[in-house]
Amino acid sequence: QLQLQESGPGLVKPSETLSLTCSVSGASISSTSYFWGWIRQPPGKGLEWIGTIYYSGSTYYSPSLQSRVTISVDTSKNQFSLKLSSVTAADTAVYYCARRPAGDFRYFDLWGRGTLVTVSS
Amino acid sequence: DIQMTQSPSSLSASVGDRVTITCRASQSISSYVNWYQQKSGTAPKFLIYAASTLQSGVPSRFSGSGSGTDFTLTISSLQPEDFATYYCQQSYSNLVTFGQGTNVEIK
Fold first, then answer.
1. CB contact under 8 A, A105 and B34
2. What pLDDT band is residue B60 in, cutting at 50, 70 and 90?
3. Percent helix / strand / coil, chain B, rounded to 5
4. Contact A51, A36 (CB under 8 A)
5. Which residues of A touch B (CB under 8 A)?
6. Å between A42 CA and nearest CA of chain B
7. How many whole angstroms from its chain centre is CA B101?
């Protein structure tokens, strides 16, 4: 059964870089059938798409975050990662990784449980 | 960016009620809308894609419709397990965006 699991520090200091990893089990991240994405949700607020990556390394980023975001994939570890630089308190959120089937409709059909990242000194 | 505006932002309903949530896109997006359900403290659950196609396993009381700029999610007979927040998402471009959510509460 396919599962996604986010991992990384739960506390990051302002101006530093947030780094998270999503481990995929039960399927190969190198499958041509899927893209992989990051979505976040500030406490009490709605969902915000951060970016999406294909196993080849092709990426799409939210325009509002593009200058600070890097998403990468490690096919040898069956993982993909998120780096968000120069964080502020506004980046405090639950961060989800998710699977996106290839195709035109670009929906996220399987999600990790999410991990809370707090930005605070 | 394509903006997605949901209405209402919250609603109160009773078990058995018919509930309709609306999502409006800032430009025409054909049928490129997906819907999710999120219960408190859990990850979103994918419900509908291409505006009206139910994901496998989603109860038939859920339905979606619309094209162009106006879309709706309807729950024909609200069940206790349906009290949650619902999000639309446009997928017209690779730069996807979500609506702000509609919270369905118990009346």
1. yes
2. very high
3. 5, 50, 50
4. no
5. 39, 46-49, 52, 60, 62-64, 96, 104-114
6. 12
7. 8
Residue A86 C-alpha, separation from nearest chain B C-alpha, in angstroms: 22
- Average pLDDT along chain B: 97
Q: Which residues of B touch A38 (CB under 8 A)?
A: none
Output the six-digit token pair for A119: 């930005």
Contact between B96 and A106 using a beta-carbon 8 Å cutoff: yes
- For A14-64, write each residue's pLDDT tens digit: 999 999 999 999 999 999 999 999 999 999 999 999 999 999 999 999 999
Sign of the CA dihedral B70, A94, A19, A11? positive
Q: What is the pLDDT of residue B103?
A: 98
Instruction: Determine contact, residues B51/B67, Cβ cutoff 8 Å.
Output: yes
Distance CA B51, CA B35 (A): 8
The string of DSSP letters for A81-107 reads EEEE-S--GGG-EEEEEEEEESSTT--
Tell me the three state secondary structure of residue B81.
helix
CB A40 within 8 A of CB A34: no
